[in-house]
């Protein structure tokens, strides 16, 4: 009887040990996972790529290897609009999400011209706690995504194969075939500046400039302009827009994460984006040096030219947006954090 009891006790202890091992093993498996992250830029000279790589490394460090970030650079998982929709639907975990009407029409407020004029103003609007960041957070959440932070890609320029005078309606502009982003606000902005506009995807710009299909392109920020250094002669620093892109994660996925893991993700992304805010002007200067070295003439607008463009854009484009896209309440939100002209 004692032998039976002893054997039963041994078997019981063995069963408990096996069950505990299974429980611990399953817990580790559930706690270790992979995240697929996409962004459309393809090298370390671009902020999106740098952010993704830093985020990947920092998450690995903070989670002690428990969380693996798979970084898909470029268009491996589609263009940026496709990536954003996939995160919204849940078939992709995370991505960099430039303003896209396909994602949400109100998200295009980022493309409103001359909301801000310098890096200090940009950080006040799109940095942590800024009015622009808060508005993007609201838009992302109602589209089943969570915004971990807003990346500063920088101010936007116009690159051209031909010389012109950067004044609204000037005769040297009117016949220039100019690419604009496939976004209505960008199209209206181009027309207001005086260009003959046509919509074209990012990947087509270089060949179109080279072949003469277009004479100029709106949309590149300073850091992207060197991609066209071999096919353009001029870079006009209109600085009419500021490329601010949220980094988003699927909302259901975010809500399923533990508080600890949410903190890891947020810490890593905040640090990654913060590095880009710190190096913003450096990125612009480096890019312009590269353009000059390639023989491209950099044109800074005069005070008179800038004032004329700001007045035209705020009058025409802002009025158009108020009548055709945004409610009065939404426009008032934008105006509340827009830098004053004077």
Overview of this protein structure:
The protein has 342 residues and is α/β, with parallel strands linked by helices. The chain has one domain (34-337): D-Maltodextrin-Binding Protein, domain 2 (3-Layer(aba) Sandwich), CATH 3.40.190. Helices cover 48% and strands 19% of the residues. The protein has helices spanning 2-31, 47-62, 80-89, 119-126, 131-142, 184-193, 205-211, 251-256, 259-278, 280-293, 303-324, 328-337, and strands at residues 33-39, 67-73, 94-96, 145-160, 177-180, 196-199, 216-221, 234-237, 242-250, 297-300. Strands 1, 2, 3, 4, 5, 6, 7, 8, 9 and 10 form a 10-stranded mixed β-sheet that branches. α2 runs antiparallel to α9 (259-278) and α6 packs antiparallel against α11 (303-324). It is globular and about 65 Å long.
Summarize the structure.
This protein is of the alpha/beta class. The protein has helices at residues 2-31, 47-62, 80-89, 119-126, 131-142, 184-193, 205-211, 251-256, 259-278, 280-293, 303-324, 328-337; strands spanning 33-39, 67-73, 94-96, 145-160, 177-180, 196-199, 216-221, 234-237, 242-250, 297-300.
């Amino acid at each position: 009887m004692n032998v039976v009891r002893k054997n039963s006790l041994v078997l019981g202890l063995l069963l408990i040990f096996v069950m505990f091992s299974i429980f611990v093993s399953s817990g580790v498996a559930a706690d270790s996972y992979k995240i697929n992250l996409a962004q459309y830029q393809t090298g370390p000279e671009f902020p999106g790529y740098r952010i993704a790589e830093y985020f990947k490394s920092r998450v690995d460090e903070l989670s002690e290897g428990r969380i693996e970030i798979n970084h898909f650079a470029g268009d491996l998982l589609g263009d940026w609009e496709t990536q954003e929709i996939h995160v919204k639907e849940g078939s992709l975990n995370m991505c960099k999400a430039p303003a896209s009407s396909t994602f949400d029409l109100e998200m295009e407020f980022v493309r409103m011209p001359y909301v801000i004029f310098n890096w200090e103003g940009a950080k006040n609007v799109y940095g942590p706690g800024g009015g622009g960041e808060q508005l993007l957070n609201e838009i992302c959440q109602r589209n089943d995504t969570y915004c971990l932070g807003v990346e500063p890609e920088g101010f936007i320029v116009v690159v051209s194969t031909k010389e012109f005078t950067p004044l609204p309606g000037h005769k040297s502009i009117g016949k220039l075939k100019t690419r604009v982003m496939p976004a209505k606000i960008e199209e209206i902005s181009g027309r207001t500046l005086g260009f003959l506009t046509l919509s074209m995807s990012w990947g087509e710009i270089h060949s179109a400039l080279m072949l003469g299909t277009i004479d100029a392109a709106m949309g590149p920020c300073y850091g992207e302009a060197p991609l066209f250094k071999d096919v353009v002669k001029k870079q006009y620093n209109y600085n009419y827009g500021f490329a601010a892109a949220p980094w988003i994660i699927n909302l259901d996925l975010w809500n399923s994460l533990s508080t600890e893991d949410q903190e890891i993700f947020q810490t890593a992304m905040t640090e990654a984006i913060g590095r880009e805010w710190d190096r913003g002007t450096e990125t612009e200067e480096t890019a312009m040096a590269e353009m000059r070295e390639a023989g491209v003439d950099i044109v800074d607008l005069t005070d008179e030219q800038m004032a004329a463009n700001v007045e035209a854009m705020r009058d025409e484009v802002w009025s158009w947006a108020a009548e055709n896209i945004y409610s009065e309440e939404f426009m008032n939100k934008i105006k509340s954090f827009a830098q004053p002209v004077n």
